[in-house]
Amino acid sequence: MKRQFFRLAALFALALAPLAEPALAQTQTQPPSYTFSPVNQYDINLTAAYWNPIISYVSEKSGVKLNLKIGRTSADTTSYVLAKEVEFVFTNHLFSPEREQLGWKVFGRRQTPPLQGQIVVPADSPITDLSQLKGQEVAFAGAEAFIVYKVPYAHLLSKNIDVKVVFAGNQNAAFAQLFAGKVKASGANSQLVDGYTRRENKKFRVLWSSEPFQDLALMASGKVPEKDVKAVASAFIEMAKDPRGREILHQVSKEVGLPNDAYFIAASGADYAAYRRFYQTAPATLH
């Protein structure tokens, strides 16, 4: 009886084998899948409107599935990166000496004019000099924002101009508070100032501008296989050479107020030397 049971069990397993093989083959042919987290330069809806068409195109062309993951604020999004929950990023939050040890590798960047950290007020503001901001409320995107917060705030500290810091969550929210009269000035990114001016028809007075920095970096985690990094990098960089890819870039750039030719190009860590120089002299609290 026992022998007959084992014989039936063996026959049952053989009967299932042809069904299991196609299922296994199907699993093996699934494209690799990774999470992509770009820093919140705009509010969540505008950030998604810019990135979703791009990563859909890149996923199709590279054969590597990218899934968008953004937090409520830029600090939230960066927390996902530091918690190792994502594999690809578009950021400038990883160039401090401590974070360079995490093993992220630059493979591309957006081809736009260099960015400058700025301190801005509405064009009709009575404030014309940084010294007038002493003791006043100044909006910044968030504590993780390099161009928008760390660079301008470090300058204010170097000039002994003590301001009341207000974190708005992203650059759009900081500008909204500025033009609503809730704060006297805002830390800013020159690219986002230009984009906001185009979209919202608001005019700024720039009180101070920093040295230039390259636009944010496309980076991959060290745990992503090299072949997948190369496939994703190629799709980003070749996007502007494909008529459909170029049209997608034109449309999403228009949506956020970027120049029409804000394409992606190859880059390396050497392009971000100015970021490293900043951390050499910045207060430890800004690292």
Question: What would your notes on this structure say?
Answer:
This protein is α/β, with parallel strands linked by helices and 287 residues long. It folds into two domains: 33-111 and 215-286, 3-Layer(aba) Sandwich (D-Maltodextrin-Binding Protein, domain 2), CATH 3.40.190; 115-213, 3-Layer(aba) Sandwich (D-Maltodextrin-Binding Protein, domain 2). Helix content is 43%, strand content 21%. It has nine helices and eleven strands. The strands form two sheets. Strands 2-1-3-10-4-11 form a six-stranded mixed β-sheet, with helices on both faces. It has a five-stranded mixed β-sheet with strand order 7-6-8-5-9. The longest helix has 27 residues, at 2-28. It starts with a helix and ends in a 6-residue tail after the last helix.
Entry keywords:
single chain; 287 residues; D-Maltodextrin-Binding Protein, domain 2; 6-stranded mixed beta sheet; 5-stranded mixed beta sheet; 9 helices; 11 strands; 21% strand; disordered N terminus
Draw up the topology in text.
Blueprint: H1 2-28, E1 33-38, H2 44-62, E2 65-68, H3 74-82, E3 88-91, E4 105-111, E5 115-122, E6 137-140, H4 146-158, E7 164-167, H5 171-179, E8 185-189, H6 190-200, E9 204-213, E10 217-220, H7 226-238, H8 243-256, E11 263-266, H9 273-281
Helix pairs in contact: 2-7, 2-8
* Straight-line distance between termini: 73 Å
Rough outline: globular
Structural class by SSE content: alpha/beta
Largest sheet, in brief, is: 6 strands, mixed
The amount of beta strand, in percent, is 15-25%
CATH architecture of the largest domain: 3-Layer(aba) Sandwich
CATH fold-type name of the largest domain: D-Maltodextrin-Binding Protein, domain 2
Query: How helical, in percent, are the residues?
Result: 40-55%
| Overall pLDDT metric | 91
Major β-sheet strand ordering: 2-1-3-10-4-11
Q: Please provide the ordered H/E string of secondary-structure elements.
A: HEHEHEEEEHEHEHEEHHEH
Q: How many domain regions?
A: 2
What's the name of the CATH homologous superfamily of the largest domain? Periplasmic binding protein-like II
Radius of gyration: 24 Å
Number of helices: 9
CATH C-level label of the largest domain: Alpha Beta
Low-confidence stretches: 1-27
- The total beta strand count reads 11
